[in-house]
Amino acid sequence: MWCLGVILTAAVSGQQAGVPLTLPPWTAGTLDLHHIVTGRGNSTFVVFPDATTMLVDAGAVVSAPLHADPLPDGSRSPGAWIVDYVRQFHPTPARPHLDYAVVTHFHADHFGEVTAGSRTNGAGVALSGITEVLDSLGAGVVVDRAWPSYDYPSDLRADAAVDNYRRFLADAVARTGLRVERVRVGSASQFRVNRDPRWPDVGVRPVAANGEIWTGTGEATEQTFPPLAALAHADHPDENMCSIGLRLHYGRFDYFTGGDLPGDPEGAPAWQGVETRLGAVLGPTDVHQVNHHGSIDPATPGFLAALRSRVLIVPAWAPTHPSPDVLKRLLNTRYYAGPRDVFTLALREPMTHAIGARVRQLAAPHGHVVVRVAPGGAAYSVYVLDYTSPARRVTAMFGPYASR
User: What is the pLDDT of residues 162-203, one digit of tens each?
Assistant: First the structure.
């Protein structure tokens, strides 16, 4: 039986024998992509070949729905569990500092929920999600979609959690010299992750944010959202549509993550389907994190056919993730031929009933998912780690896969 808290791995072609008890330590030249389970939102920890580190999101939903218990348990906050994970797998665990932290957009399951019970720091700022992680680990640069104005498509400053986040940044800038930057869509130089000359062919490019999409040529972009003045208020872009999308490459290896970017919202104007335009730009991609937790509208047929991903990772945490229809699309070989392995981070028991037997087509339904790219980027493997214990033992290993 597939049930929450028990990690079972289907017998798929990619699974390796001789699974190690623990994840082998990161070594120079390796790219690691850690998709972290807390049961309360998204968080991905990246270690680049030159030991540069980056955290993408640090979700912390406090008022979670039923059947969405914190993972591995409620003894720590989601932010504290993320900190504990980063400390375990940081290339320099004695000094687990983050070089970059990225907030894809301002929803609680991506940057933290602030409540009256939130712990505060010495400056009186609530610590939840990204603020808790940054308070514990520190960072060199924080990149988000709205700095410094926080006024598009609506005034985000009126949101209590965003206001708290801005106050945290202001204090950290003054006290620690933290740099804060607005994402520069199309830029190949905003993130410096190739400082070691032995590994030059590695990089990060923001490909989407606020309706701005990279064209695929140089650093040129185009704006796909109409001017707000031309729209009825009901058609204004929402927070999900404004998410930051990132493309990572290492040699032949390509990876995409896009926060909660939507697919084709039913009945909405065509321009709101961000995936449609973005898929044409991204093209073949080895691994991608499925947008918006696999909820209803993402993973459109055109997007899947454009990326043709060999490995797809669904950052599921709530009992509605992933939508049964989305899972059908992820597994449908009519959109693109060939095998693919689909992983979910935390498949809640109610969703196993909705999905039914198709659950058994998942490579692994539960666990931290680590993509490890070999030096040079020609091949990669996937490790699944147990989320029920801070030891985070390896429960399954897949690959090696050849990068395209």
Answer: 999 999 999 999 999 999 999 999 999 999 999 999 999 999
- Angle, CA of 342, 291 and 52, to the nearest 5°: 85
Nearest CA to 204 among 217, 190, 218, 215?
Answer: 190
Cα angle, residue 298 at apex, residues 243 and 66 outer, rounded to 5°: 85
Q: Would you call the peptide bond into 72 cis, given omega within 30 degrees of 0 as the criterion? A: yes
Report the distance separating Cα 43 and Cα 37, nearest Å. Answer: 8
Q: What is the pLDDT of residues 371-382, one digit of tens each?
A: 999 999 999 999
Q: Find tokens 């429960």 and name the residue.
A: 395
Backbone angles phi and psi of 101, in degrees to 5: -130, 130
Distance of CA 344 to the CA centre of its chain: 12
Residue with tokens 């920890």: 45
Per-residue CA distances from 252 to 55, 107, 149, 289, 310 (Å): 23, 33, 37, 18, 13
- pLDDT tier at 14 (50, 70, 90 boundaries)? low
Length in residues, the chain:
404
Task: Band the pLDDT of 66: cuts 50, 70, 90.
Answer: confident
Rounded Cα gap, residues 296 and 261, in angstroms? 12
CA–CA dist 23, 317 (Å, integer): 23
Q: What angle do CA 75, 77, 79 make, to 5 degrees?
A: 140
Instruction: Evaluate if pTM is beyond 0.85.
Output: yes
What CATH number does domain 31-228+235-399 carry, 3.60.15.10, 3.40.1360.10, 1.10.287.110, 2.120.10.30? 3.60.15.10
- Model confidence at 7: pLDDT above 80: no
When the pLDDT of each residue in the chain is averaged and rounded to a whole number, the result is 94
**Kind and range of the H or E element at 350?**
helix 349-355
107 contacts: CB under 8 Å, gap ≥ 6? 59, 239, 240, 260
How far, in Å, CA of 145 to CA of 150, rounded? 8
What's the pLDDT score for residue 342? 98
- CB-CB contact of 290 with 300 (8 Å): no
